[in-house]
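Batch job 17 of 40 flagged for manual review because the log was empty.
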Amino acid sequence: MAHRIVALTPRSNSGPVPGDSESGNTAVYWPLPYMSRSYVARLICIVSLVVVGVCAQAQKLKELASIGGVRENQLLGYGLVVGLDGSGDQTTQTPFTVQSIINMLTQLGVQLPTATSLQLKNVAAVTVTASMPPYSRVGQPIDVTVSSIGNAKSLRGGTLLMSPLKGADGQVYAIAQGNLVVAGAGAAAGGSSTQINQLAVGRIPGGATVEREVPSAVGQGDFVMLALNEADFGTATRVAQALNSALGATTARALDARTIQVRAPQDSDARVAFMARLEDVSVIPAESVAKVIINARTGSVVMNQAVTLEPCAISHGNLTVTIVAKNEVSQPNALSRGKTAKVENATVDIKTEKGGVTMVPRSANLNEVVRALNQIGATPQDLLAILQAMKAAGSLKAELEII
C-alpha cells in the first residue's frame, strides 16, 4: 500500500500518535518537544516563502556585471559593391564612387585616360561595419554589415570587394569580402514600384577575417575588475559580500557603485577556472529604482515592477480641431477684361469632448498600476502628459525618463 506524508507532528514523551497506521498514512514526527503543530506549520511556511523569494531574485554574476578588459571593439571600413543589376550609384551624383573605381583599377595595373568619364550602374560605394568579439584570434571569421552611402537603389545580388576594417586607433584589424545577403525585395515597372524591407543594407555572415588581435589585460596583474551593468551601491556591496562568502573572506571589495575589485590567481590555468567559478556565483541584486520610460515619438510607455501610485483624481478630455478647405475658381464674364482668380474658403471647427473625473486608487504593484491607468481611457499619446502631471502632483512614485 502506498504511503503519503499527512502531518508534521511534534514528538512527545508519550510515544507516537496512534491512528495513522490504520488509514495507510505515515506520520512524520518533528523532533522538537516544545513546539505545537500550528507553530511548526507557520514556521515551515515562512521558511518556504523566504527560500522561494531568494531563488526567484538571485541572478548569476555574469548577468549583472562584465569583466574589465573583456569587451567588443567596433570596426569601420569603406568599400565597393559590384555586380549589381543596374541598381548601383548614379555616378553623376556620386563622384566618390568613380574615384574609388579609378583608384582600385590603378592598383590592379589598369591605367585609364585622365579625361575618362565612367558611367557605372552596377557599382555602389558602401561603408562596412563589424563588431570584433573579445579574445578574437587571427583567422577567425566575423559578421559584417554593408550599408550604401550613395544613391544606389538596391544592393541585392552584389559582391563586396576586399575592404580593410580599421579600429579607433586607425589600425587594420580585419579584411572583409564576400557576397551580400539582403533581406528586402523590390520591383518597379511603368512608373509603379513596390518594396519590402530595406534594400540598401545587407550582411555577410562570416564575411571578415581577423588579421590583428586585441591584447586583453584579464590575464595580467593581481586583480580583476568587475563592472556592473547598472551602477548601484547596494548591488555592488552585495556582489562583494557574495564573492567573499563563496571564494574567500578577502577576495573582493567594492570600489564604487559600479566597480568591484577581485583578487585572482596568477597562474593562467587557475585564473580561467577561477573566472568560471566567479561568473556562476549567485547574487541577489538590490531593489531596482522605480522608473517609467516614455518614448515621445512613438507614444510607447514602459514601466518596471517597482512603480507605485498614490490616490489621485484625473479629469481627461479631448480637443478636436477640424479644418475644411474648399477652393474655387472665379471666372469673369466674356469681354469683361477680368482675370481668372483662385478663391480659398476655409472652415475651422473646434470640438471639445467632456471628460469626467476618474478616481485612481492606491496601487502597490504593476498589475494594479496598469489597471488604474486603463480606467482613464486615454490614448498612449495622451498618457504621456497624464503621467507627467501625475509625477508633478506626487501621485506617481517613479522616475520619468523621456527618450
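Reviewer: the log was empty due to a logging misconfiguration, but the result itself is present. Confidence is low (pLDDT under 50) at residues 1-34, 44-56. Unflagging and moving on to job 18.
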